């Protein structure tokens, strides 16, 4: 009687998620369907700047100088629709650089920033009442937990997180109340993403 041969199963364990590279019938409830999208929430701030590289138009800023007008925004869920943040001098604070330029449907989470009028050049001042204006950039990013990254970065994210020694902070609970502040006299020169913006164009 012939004995059926078992085929080896190769799986990646990334941030507590099983990602099968070959069919994995033995894993009940495999998240493969959720990972079919080309972009998934990375959930870490480690090595953020390596993944979201700076642009020529990014101008240096001092987050502590954000003493101008403030705007309060509440985000019901992640992601917020803010594509990129940059750190201030000394790696402190976080400034919004790119916001998705449309809301595709009512309640679109990735249209929240656009619907709330969030603009490039705004500095994150508080998150759920916690002053983060001059905190470490990676800490601010971990609190926001707002990155939508290509899943191909999963391995590098895990390595960067390990090298960093873990998260700088646990993600803030939703709904997330964020106060943004402007820098008097600062002239932001970044890109305003229009309604025709698509990820494939970048």
Description:
- With 202 residues, the chain is an alpha+beta fold.
- It has a single domain (39-190), classed as PDZ domain (Pdz3 Domain, Roll), CATH 2.30.42.10.
- Helix content is 14%, strand content 21%.
- The protein is built from 4 helices and 10 strands.
- It has helices at residues 48-51, 112-116, 137-144, 154-164, and strands at residues 11-14, 17-20, 40-41, 70-75, 82-87, 94-99, 123-127, 130-131, 148-149, 176-181.
- The strands form 4 sheets. The protein has a 4-stranded antiparallel β-sheet. A two-stranded antiparallel sheet has the order 1-2. Strands 3-9 form a two-stranded antiparallel ribbon.
- β7 (123-127) and β8 form a beta hairpin.
- Residues 2-44 have low confidence and may be disordered.
- This is PDZ domain-containing protein.
Topology of this structure?
Blueprint: E1 11-14, E2 17-20, E3 40-41, H1 48-51, E4 70-75, E5 82-87, E6 94-99, H2 112-116, E7 123-127, E8 130-131, H3 137-144, E9 148-149, H4 154-164, E10 176-181
Antiparallel strand pairs: 1-2, 3-9, 4-10, 5-6, 7-8, 7-10
Signal peptide: 1-20
Protein name: PDZ domain-containing protein
Keywords: Signal
Total of DSSP H or I helical runs spanning 4+ residues: 4
Order of helices and strands: EEEHEEEHEEHEHE
Taking the alpha carbons of the first and last residues, their distance comes to 58 Å
Identify low-pLDDT runs.
2-44
By secondary-structure content and strand pairing, the structural class works out as alpha+beta
Counting DSSP E segments of at least 2 residues, the number of strands comes to 10
- Approximately what portion of the residues adopt beta-strand conformation? 15-25%
Radius of gyration: 19 Å
């Amino acid at each position: 009687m012939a004995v059926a041969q078992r085929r080896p199963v190769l799986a990646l364990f990334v941030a507590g998620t099983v990602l099968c590279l070959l069919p994995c019938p033995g894993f009940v409830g495999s998240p493969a369907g959720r990972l079919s999208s080309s972009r998934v929430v990375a959930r870490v701030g480690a090595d953020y700047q390596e993944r979201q590289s700076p642009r020529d138009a990014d101008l240096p800023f001092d987050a502590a100088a954000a003493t101008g007008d403030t705007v309060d925004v509440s985000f019901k869920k992640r992601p917020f629709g803010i594509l990129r943040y940059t750190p201030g001098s000394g790696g402190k604070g976080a400034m919004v650089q790119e916001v998705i330029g449309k809301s595709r449907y009512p309640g679109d989470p990735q249209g929240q920033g656009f619907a709330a009028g969030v603009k490039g050049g705004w500095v994150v001042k508080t998150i759920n009442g916690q002053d983060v204006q001059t905190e470490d950039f990676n800490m601010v990013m971990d609190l926001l937990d707002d990155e939508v990254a290509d899943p191909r970065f999963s391995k590098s994210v895990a390595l960067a997180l390990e090298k960093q020694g873990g998260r700088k902070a646990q993600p803030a609970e939703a709904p997330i109340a964020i106060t943004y502040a402007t820098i008097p006299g600062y002239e932001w020169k970044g890109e305003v993403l229009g309604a025709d913006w698509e990820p494939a164009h970048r």
